[in-house]
Amino acid sequence: MTGWVEDPDTYPMAAKRHSIEYLREVAHMRPRTNLIGAVARVRHTLAQALHRFFDEQGFFWVSTPLITASDTEGAGEMFRVSTLDMENLPRNDQGKVDYDKDFFGKEAFLTVSGQLNGETYACALSKIYTFGPTFRAENSNTSRHLAEFWMLEPEVAFADLADNAALAEAMLKYVFKAVLTERADDMKFFAERVDKDAIERLERFVTADFAQVDYTDAVTILENCGKKFENPVYWGVDLSSEHERYLAEEHFKAPVVVKNYPKEIKAFYMRLNDDGKTVAAMDVLAPGIGEIIGVPSVKSVWTFLMLVWLKWV
């Protein structure tokens, strides 16, 4: 449909650059802008490249439910799904909301992760991945927390931490190379209008050798670097964004894999290392971002189920 703009002064998309904040207010029209159009095309290429990569690696894509009764991450920060009348909630004998009267006959939520479903399929198909929308009800107004985002979760039945690190590096380089080659015009636009280093940063990423460091050694590096951080550094602390970015941007000057974290700061189901203090988990840190991938090595299914039972009985 085309037509004349009767009053250009009141037309919401004037012929000028608009801020991201303003474009959010006219969401029905922002796809027409150069910026959002480029973002949409790059996102398409990223998604297609991810599917191609995992298909070539022998993985099967598993579509997991968006509505679930499980709090996979154990954080309790979930969006509730209900058809009950909020103005007239049914109550049980204890005065609590009676979810027996709800659509599913029990409490239901938007998924925080497809991990639990993915692990069951990995036990049958060996190598699978999930890729789809994820929801977190974390009341954190930061650039690192989103209420809704798309998350990729590969699951491999028989793999160790070295295998996971190699897969993560190969995947990131594959998809970023696809963006550079297939979306060259859009990347040029980003370099001209958004970030002049956008292309160079991705080119460095796809040619870099990923550094690897144990968590213990990473803490030592941070403690001895002579830089004052807002968040204190000590063995056992969960590394913050400033710690991660220092390691990737200033110390290693490359993507870095931090591995073997203290068991107290990771999920209970992660595989315990021989030292009894750390678990086989790793994070991939990227310059300019910080953590871009988090990877656990999960215990055997039997051990995992026993831990779940002990945790909740």
From TrEMBL:
Domain Aminoacyl-transfer RNA synthetases class-II family profile: 41-285
UniProt KW Transferase keyword: no
Highest taxon listed in the record's lineage: Bacteria
Gene Ontology terms, MF aspect: asparagine-tRNA ligase activity; ATP binding
GO biological process per UniProt: asparaginyl-tRNA aminoacylation
Enzyme Commission identifier(s): 6.1.1.22
UniProt key word Manganese: no
UniProt keyword annotations, A-Z: Aminoacyl-tRNA synthetase, ATP-binding, Ligase, Nucleotide-binding, Protein biosynthesis
InterPro entries: Aa-tRNA-synt_II (IPR004364), aa-tRNA-synth_II (IPR006195), aa-tRNA-synth_II/BPL/LPL (IPR045864), Asn-tRNA-ligase (IPR004522)
Entry-linked Pfam families: tRNA-synt_2
Gene3D superfamilies per the UniProt record, alphabetical: Bira Bifunctional Protein, Domain 2
PANTHER family the UniProt entry points to: ASPARAGINE--TRNA LIGASE, MITOCHONDRIAL-RELATED (PTHR22594:SF34), ASPARTYL/LYSYL-TRNA SYNTHETASE (PTHR22594)
Family: Belongs to the class-II aminoacyl-tRNA synthetase family.
Name of the featured protein: Asparagine--tRNA ligase
Organism listed in the record: Kluyvera cryocrescens (Kluyvera citrophila)
Gene name of this polypeptide: asnS_1
